[in-house]
Amino acid sequence: MVRYFNNKPVELLAPAGNFEIFKEIITLKCDAAYFGGKILNMRLHRKNYNFTDQELSEAVRMAHSLGKKAYITVNNMYNDQELGQLKEFLLLLHDIKPDALIVQDFSVIELIREMSLKLPVHASVMMNVHNLQSMYALQELGVTRVVLSREAPLAYGKYLAAKTHLELEYFVHGDMCITHGGQCLYSGMLFGQSSNRGRCLKPCRWGYGIHYNDKEYVTQFPLAVKDMCMYENIPELIDGGITSFKIEGRMRDPDYLTMLINAYGDGIDRYIKDPLNYDRRKEAVKLDESRKRDTSTAYAFGRPGLKNINARYEGTGTLFSSGKVFSTATQERETTGERLRNVGALLKEQAVGGKEKANLTVKVNNFRQAKTCLDLKADAIYLSGDVFLPDKPFSRKEIEELIKCKGDTKVYLGMPHMTFDIQMEEYEQFLSSLIPLDGLLATNIGGIRAFKGRELIGDYPLNILNAKTAEFYLRQGLKRFTITPEATLSETLSILNHMGGQAELIVHGSPTVMYMEHDLYDNVKEAGNGLLYLTDEAGFNHPVYKDQYGRNHMLLYKNICYLPILKELYQAGLKNFRIEACHLKEEELASTVAAYKQALKDMDACEDLYEELAAGGSFSLGSFSL
Known about the structure:
Elements: E1 3-5, E2 8-15, H1 19-25, E3 32-36, H2 53-65, E4 69-74, H3 83-96, E5 100-103, H4 106-114, E6 121-123, H5 132-140, E7 145-147, H6 154-163, E8 167-174, H7 186-191, E9 208-212, E10 215-217, E11 227-229, H8 234-239, E12 244-247, H9 254-273, H10 284-289, E13 295-296, H11 337-348, E14 359-364, H12 367-375, E15 380-383, H13 396-404, E16 410-414, H14 421-431, E17 439-442, H15 445-450, E18 456-458, H16 467-476, E19 478-482, H17 489-499, E20 503-509, E21 512-516, E22 532-536, E23 541-546, E24 552-555, E25 560-561, H18 566-571, E26 576-580, H19 586-601, H20 606-614
Parallel strand pairs: 2-3, 2-12, 3-4, 4-5, 5-6, 6-7, 7-8, 8-12, 11-13, 14-15, 14-26, 15-16, 16-17, 17-18, 18-19, 19-20, 20-26
Antiparallel strand pairs: 1-2, 8-11, 9-10, 9-22, 20-25, 21-24, 22-23, 23-24
């Protein structure tokens, strides 16, 4: 089944949660279906869902017999322990011959290359492809299709389609996330159930109040976004260069999917047959009455603002089908003596010794913080590319002054989490003026491609959880990489065992655990430079910072602190220790950097130094507490 509009292919891509559902939906008005095996994919919550190996093979055969395509999701993020299973699964898929794999983790692409397998690859939405350089990088790696970032407007899709040979896939209906794809760490760090590994417990759908400048704003579910519905915008999708119209819903029932597939399939066919007399709203009322949440067009036509927030039943964090909640507000785990002893013992089991120098790096938000770190002789500072307001982005004059007085400290310029094409051009222009920076902190594969040849450090938005993915990025041009903050102790130890000298770990502070295009400050009715807090149903306050681009960063409300296990981490192979300091006040920053510098000189002093720091408040062991 092939559809064309002015010689442009148009594919309706349907989800199938299990083989029984697949057999029903593949005969409907879709051109292709996507589904996953019992392992290694992003939908593993329900035991009666997903496909056995035999069912995968039969589903591909059945789709091909009907002239349709079958895509298999190998779209999880993997740890080292899963790579052996991944190799075996890829060999199986090579024999099954699906039309493509949908992939998030670059370890999959690396293994396909190493094993010389013939398996076409589509880049998952979890890769969060959002700039032309990333498109070029993926094209060079042999990727044939990209699922565009959920925050990408259709006008940008049209631009990308004109600039590359890659097919574009776009979500047209279904569940959406409040955060950028691959940039939500909170479920993983809080529960050990990572959204990047298909196990999200949806803290975004808790009830939250908002506090700002000592005032409370009544908000019911300010992070619960509406579902996507592009049914009335089929012409704009085609005009936007979208090849594949993707329906989300591998956890949905067959009756609901049947209604969606037939409605969209009929709409596409009617538009192709008679575009001048096309009725956009033929099935709109039926779709609206059958919705699970309220719907919107999300970012297809620009930032939707507060009108994209849902208040309908399932949007509150409750499953529509069962009435059960995904999760409830939970305290971030405190550091306890017992947990420290357990973590320390596990680290000692992997002690490798060595006499390499231990380096302290600090990410900073403004010139004053940077100067403090230079005065305390940090080994490197990262000038953040996402500057929290009310601070302003680093100026050329400030950067030149820091370089002038940096001494032995290295100065790197950070790139934003999301580096759109305009930022790529701005960085290229800035760097062309020969400012002697030591290098860049890269956050996406596009940035690595654009600035290859400079000294590049991979930041945590790259989501590196295994050594194979780390090796891939090092081949692309990184000097070293940051381990994802979601990594558990055992996962971190595995990476250190493979390449500890090239790894960096956040040992203090807070990464951004939810990175949002959505601006929560729209809920605030007054101007000012205050900090917004989300207060969950258990009373815990989550700080949300706004950056210079208007994007929001939710941080942990308890800072990570690995100071008491610093010696054991070093002996386990870690040589690069990072403080995420953008949100720290100057006095706290100075005392923290000084403590870690002293600890790396005299690691037997870690316990005493920790007690001094902990006197100011409680800390968390982050993912090491799981």
